[in-house]
Amino acid sequence: MAHAFFWLLPLLYKTCPGYAWVASNFLMTGPKAHLAYARSVQGGAQSGIDECKHQFAWDRWNCPDSATQLRGLKRATRETSFVHAISAAGVMYTLTRNCSLGDLDNCGCDVSKNGKTGCSDNVDFGERISKQYVDAQETGQDSRAAVNLHNNAAGRLVRSGRGTT
Asked: H helices of 16-142, where?
């Protein structure tokens, strides 16, 4: 089955350009798909927590000790909003950096930067994968999940340089 799909892949890209994303999604499924970026996501979330600790070093409120404690933030406060935003930004930054360094498969330099030499950061890749991983943690349909998704998006927006706080 998979061999037949790979044979049809060039045909799919040529005849159905609008459906090329289907092929990409097919290629990124399976048991190893999530492992490809897991280390970068984990490192990025931890770098967000480390930055949070740096920013709140002299504050009464302190950040969680590790990225695994993000789900333990029960109260909706400005501080927890900051933790969600800075963690999403950290994940996006780490994915973008590791992609540009060639540490990740299925990504590469951003070719849309015409006229520049060298390898431009593929910010769109970092944003897309960060959104898939970080936003997947919010499974509820309540207002708290909506707020956390908003804070995640705010962190990615500021990190990409497309917005300000």
From this structure: 20-27, 35-55, 78-100, 123-134
More confident residue, 67 or 91: 91
Q: Are residues 145 and 124 in the same domain?
A: yes
Under the banding of pLDDT at 50, 70 and 90, the label for residue 71 is: low
Query: Among 59, 68, 161, which Cα is nearest to 120's?
Result: 161
My answer on whether 53 and 128 are in the same domain is: yes
59/128 same-domain check: yes
CA distances from 121 to 3, 109, 111, 113, 127 (A): 33, 6, 9, 9, 11
- Domain boundaries, position 10: 1-30
- Region 12-17 average pLDDT: 39
